Amino acid sequence: MCHGAAVAAFPTPAEPTSYSGAVDGFVFGPDGGPRVAILPDIYGCNDFYRGLATHLAQQGAQVFLIDTFAGLGELPEVTREAAFARRNKVADTAFVDRFEQFLTVESIEGVIGFCLGGLYVFELARRGVDVSLLGLYGFPQGLPNEDPLPVPFDYLEDVTTPFTMLLGAGDESVGPENIAKLKSMDAAVPAMTLKVYDGVGHNFLPFLDSEDAAKNAIARDALSHIEQVAK
Q: Is the pTM of this model over 0.85?
């Protein structure tokens, strides 16, 4: 599930500056360019996201890679079980409250969220946060949590803040039935730009390294959406 390793398509991660405020994380690139934030998946700020942040910084953006799991320690092993055990210690609503404060303080212009971060993108749209919002592999059915966020399916038709969500049609983590339901709601949610890629499931951006032409094209299309947020 999601991104546990680097991809060769991204540059070697640059050495970032640590950031501490309403949320913690790392800053890539100098001040002066478009200011964007990346919300990673359950594996956190690993070399996949550091490589992506470096890529966007090389294109002129200042990128804040958010450490959703600050204070919860490093993963003892890169496994789904260990990642979820740490993820379950995050109070989702309290975290998004702090993240929303961070967006205002730092004048962030765009947010890119993956998996768990994609769920947070749904919530930011619900709250009317006026920045460019892009989610990949987000959960329209919500996720269980001790401090749960509202379920996107329950509010999407009332959202007026534009956002984009990219999903794979075969995503077993989100669930094909949930993706089908989201597609059926698309016309009733004009604020949402929904793109569902056939032939891939969860975690399709690493196909940037694939020799499969169709999968590589999907990953490059998804990357073009990411790059657009950072312009």
A: yes
